[in-house]
Amino acid sequence: MNKTAEATCLCGKCSNCAVFNRTVCSVGSPEALAQLNRISHQRSYPRGSIIQAQGEAGDMVGNIVDGVVKLSSASVNGTEHIVGLLFPSDFFGRLFAEESRFSYEAATDVTLCLMNKPGFERFLIEHPAVEHEMLKAKLDELDAVREWAAITNGHTTMQRVATLLYVFSRRSINQHLDDGAQASSSVHVPLSRRDIADYLGTTPETLSRNIQTLARSKVIRIINAKQFQLLSMNELIRHSGESRADLDRIASV
Amino acid sequence: MNKTAEATCLCGKCSNCAVFNRTVCSVGSPEALAQLNRISHQRSYPRGSIIQAQGEAGDMVGNIVDGVVKLSSASVNGTEHIVGLLFPSDFFGRLFAEESRFSYEAATDVTLCLMNKPGFERFLIEHPAVEHEMLKAKLDELDAVREWAAITNGHTTMQRVATLLYVFSRRSINQHLDDGAQASSSVHVPLSRRDIADYLGTTPETLSRNIQTLARSKVIRIINAKQFQLLSMNELIRHSGESRADLDRIASV
DNA sequence: CGATAACTTGATGTGACTCAACTTAAGTGG
DNA sequence: CCACTTAAGTTGAGTCACATCAAGTTATCG
User: What is the domain class of B155-251 according to CATH?
Assistant: First the structure.
């Protein structure tokens, strides 16, 4: 894990970046990369940090290198709703707009690759190939957000919980590749119950009840608050109310 | 209303297009416009038409010229959830992907400006200024979808209904400018109760009850199933659970 | 004008939120 | 390193908003 703090380019060249080949940066020419190296630097934030507050005129954008960032919207009544989760290689920040409608907050300890927003905006305009990649990424994101909206709306809490567990299990396969064959049976959800509940549009109490129900019926085993073992993938899929194909499609974004 | 059916370029030049200056097309050079003219044509579809089915390999993209298109996702159990509504000047179709995850369906009679997808994709790559505009539009759309997701999740049905009515009232001001001062008091919602319910994540029954409640408490007057008069804007805003500023922000997209 | 669909209204059951107590985990200072 | 404190998570009881099923009413269209 990167412990870099507030230093410019401690990550070395972008070519050493842990998430480089999964970001839009990867399509840049050597000349473009050199320019990116100049305007970017890594920085770490502890869990709970507000990276950018709702409505604030953000002057930074960048990529998640490590950790999870939550994108949330706070209502007048104090309710917070998480409208998105950003994972390593995901882009964060609101390009081409004064301020962000949402707040960016570190859901875990995170390491970011930060870039000056106006600088990166200029960079994009000067490098259409990268901007093209950014458009494709945003189109994928748009589909994913809509897909998730359809899930949180038309499904029961149990279905959402099962879907989330499945998606995180797929995600951890892709990321850690820790132990090959059995990777999918172990799920790490690095979020607090409150954050998961806010993301699923429910409460920590209801969420807890559903997780315990899944455990009682031997679909999962609770290792600890953030770690689960999948005992029956088929049962989990059944509880999700989605087909396996749909789930994989959701997980792939 | 345009009655054009399946004819190539009956709209004449793009410069005669009803929605031209609100679309991404408007930033194109004269040369670009000429090219757009060649690859585009208008076509009308009656209400209920499937413009593109879910999962189908769509070969068309374009702009809505008139009417409302619903973007929906059908679940395994037959439930349909509307994840987006597209209005005149909005772009439809899934660029840079084989198939669309959602179905596009005419919620009213619609007129579209259709373009061959591969052709338009090539056009975008050849015209970075237009692609840049497309990116900006998609970034706005992303914010709007997330904002709407936060509303449908954290709010009661009454709040969603009030929000929808407010948003549609603002939208009709912008579009029709029918009678200036009193424009905002008359709201036209050109969707069926079922479509509205699917969009709000509720049922036609619950929706109807809420609308009737608003009418009984003199917040609105029901002119007919699709037409309402706003009697008390302040009360409507109060029922929405949002601040006026937030509502206007939502409506502006 | 009859038939079908769209919408409204009523009665009822239930999933999930709320409030509250309890248990476990995490962090802090002596 | 352990007692203490505080936060995070779980479990329980009660309530309510909303979905469901069903019947009635109003539009829409051939």
Answer: mainly alpha
Range A145-153 average pLDDT = 94
What does the alpha-carbon distance between residue A60 and residue A92 come to, in Å, rounded to a whole number?
9
B121 to A142, B91, B131, B132: CA distances (angstroms)? 18, 13, 9, 13
Nearest CA in chain B to A96: B136
In CATH, which superfamily holds the domain spanning B8-135?
A: Jelly Rolls (2.60.120.10)
- For residue range B239-249, what is the model confidence (pLDDT) as tens digits? 999 999 999 98
Q: Are A169 and A182 in contact (CB under 8 A)?
A: no
**B181-193 confidence digits (pLDDT tens):** 444 588 999 999 9
Mean pLDDT score of chain A: 90
Interface test with A, best of B104, B142, B242 (most A CBs within 10 A): B142
The set of residues, in sequence order, having a beta carbon less than 8 Å from that of B194 and lying 6+ positions away, is B204
| Domain span(s) for CATH 1.10.10.10 in chain B | 155-251
Question: pLDDT digits over A4-18, tens only?
Answer: 334 444 566 687 889
pTM higher than 0.90 for the full model?
Answer: yes
* One-letter identity of residue A217: S
Of B128, B137, B162, which Cα lies nearest the Cα of B63? B137
